[in-house]
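Lab notebook, page 48
Experiment: co-folding of the full assembly
Goal: obtain a model of how the components sit together before planning crosslinking
Operator: M.T.
Materials (sequences as entered):
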Amino acid sequence: MSAVNITLQPRPQLDASVDHAIQAIVSGATTGQTCNTDLAAGPWDFDIRPGYGPGSSMGDVIPTGAPRQGELPREYREASEDELAGRIRAAKAALGERVVVLGHFYQREEVVTHADYVGDSFQLANAALEHPDAEAIVFCGVHFMAETADLLSRPEQAVILPNLAAGCSMADMADIDQVEECWEQLSEIYGDMDAEDAEGLVPVIPVTYMNSSAAIKGFVGRHGGIVCTSSNARTVLEWAFQRGRRVLFFPDQHLGRNTAKAMGVPLEQMPMWNPRRPLGGASVDALEDARVILWHGFCSVHRRFSVDQIEQARAEHPGVRVIVHPECPMEVVDAADEAGSTDYIRKAIEAATEPTTFAIGTEVNLVQRLAAEHPQHTIFCLDPVVCPCSTMYRIHPGYLAWVLEGLVDGEVRNRITVPADVAEPARVALERMLAAKPPAAPVADWENAS
Ligand code: SF4
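Observation: model returned without errors.
Model output:
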């Protein structure tokens, strides 16, 4: 099997491991700052506690009933990095083609090094499709990603999430009950949600970002809606506006706002829907005039980036090229030179022929890996504080070794299964996305990301 996305350089000059950087900071071996010294501990120290754990999402409120991970056996908790790497390699060798290991761009380097494929969530779900005979797909990412892989894989294939506590705080911000309640309230304003007006448009088309639960994707599928990624959000909004007067976009307000703004939708026609407030905190007039209703969700990793950081990068590195992810707040996207998906960022760096300084606004594991792979460039994270995605960070090599050795012993651990009644409409929403055509006219830089 070959990696489809990142082409790893044979001898990186820099250490790509964020964990090593954190350990060095916490031990005092290097200067630098991390957002929480607990990051130097093993994730099993947090699995039994409620919350997302230390890292960028630690301030977010975890929903009641979020999956918890049982205690990892002592032999995995106490094993050294080298020992775990050896055990993972041995288990993979024993399993051969029976298993595919997928590693998200934001995953720890110590895990990514064992991945057969590295990419974003949708690329990885598609990569798994290339192995219909594999018995197990081990998804080193977060919960919604494993669900998406389960939606797209064959029923007899087991999709495994090495640590059940690896959720996504943004995805958790759009709860299915809250979304159903929102839809009901909107239908009181707009009337029959299936009725077409004189122009053949229904009142609202729901659009969900890939970073959402299968339940939300199923909701969208049942109500004529569609899924989008950060690469195709504009194409998907074009699709939605051909069918509906408005869009209800969740869970990431920033991706929704940045995309719609680039399409010319005025900010005053993008009211926010806060599920904790009546009518989402918006007025009836604002909702009637709305073009895009933005769910009050965000990614705590990308919310850390600021205009001040961009100004500081420009002051310290004249000529720096600033690229940020569209999950960043609008002011940050506006202040950056470019904005685009993780794949866009990776390709932009690969395409640079002259030594260049890049300041990148996305998760630090990807940035540090890109810096190690491209020593001809200067690449750094816009945020000077080392603060990884706390949920991605829950996938420690100890968990990967545990699930792989379970498979060797004939035991499937941590299987993620989407119920059939949810899976069917969720697949419809995904299929609509795959069938949506890009706009005919060229668009701004970051919407061209593929
Ligand atoms: S980086 Fe943000 S959107 Fe991605 S998994 Fe982490 S919290 Fe979720």
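Interpretation: The chain has 19 helices and 15 strands.
Next step: discuss with group before ordering constructs.
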